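Can anyone check this?
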Amino acid sequence: MTDERRLRPATAEEVEDTLTFALRFKGRKRWDGAGPLIAGTAADHLRRVLEEAGYVVMKTPDSVAPSITRHPYPGG
């Protein structure tokens, strides 16, 4: 379960970027549902509607990228 103390409100830019990505891709594959301009416009509109309705989107901290080396983590 997520530690709620680590959650923070997502910025407007983070919400729009995530919505734009979701409108343009299915997983990591490009989807022909919406082009970049349409996806960006729709994401901006959705974010504004969510804000006006009183929604707050929460985000967890970004995780550390996994290492592909066999060297031990320098921090211990």
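Reply from J.R.: I decoded it. Residues 33 and 74 are 45 Å apart (CA to CA).
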